[in-house]
Amino acid sequence: MRPSCCSSEESPHWVGFGAKRFREVLRRSIRMLWTGSVVQRSRCLVVVVVVVVVVVVVVVEVKVVVVKVVVVVKVVVVVVVVVVKVVVVLVGA
In the prediction, which pLDDT does 16 show? Predict the structure, then answer.
C-alpha cells in the first residue's frame, strides 16, 4: 500500500517510476510534511528519508565504480606501455 501523500490522479500505478514521476512524488511528499495530517506527515517523512538514502547510496556507488574503472584503465595503460617497450627492445636487439 502506498502512502496517501504520494497518490496521483493522473497515474494510478505505483510501479514504473520515471524521472518526472520520481520528482513528483518527492515534491508532494515534501509539501505534505507541512500541510498534511500527522499520519500523512509521518508517511511522507519516511518516503523522503528513503528517497534521500537511496540517492546517496546510488551516487556513492557510481563514484566507487568510476574510481575502480579509472584505476583499471591506468593499470591497463601501464601494462600496455611496458609490453610495447619490451617488444621494441626485443625487436631492436
Answer: 53
Quote the distance between the C-alpha of residue 55 and its chain's center.
Answer: 5
Per DSSP, the three-state class of 11 is coil
* Residue corresponding to grid cell 631492436: 92
Number of C-alpha atoms within 13 angstroms, CB side, residue 5? Answer: 24
Residue 81 has pLDDT above 80, yes or no: yes
Residue appearing with cell numbers 518527492 = 26
Spell out the SS3 assignment of 30-73: HHHHHHCCHHHHHHHHHHHHHHHHHHHHHHHHHHHHHHHHHHHH
Give the start-to-end residue ranges of the domains of the chain.
4-92
For residues 71 and 79, the answer to whether their CB atoms sit within 8 Å is no
Instruction: Tell me the pLDDT tens digit for each residue of 1-49.
Output: 445 555 544 444 445 557 777 778 778 887 877 787 877 777 777 777 8
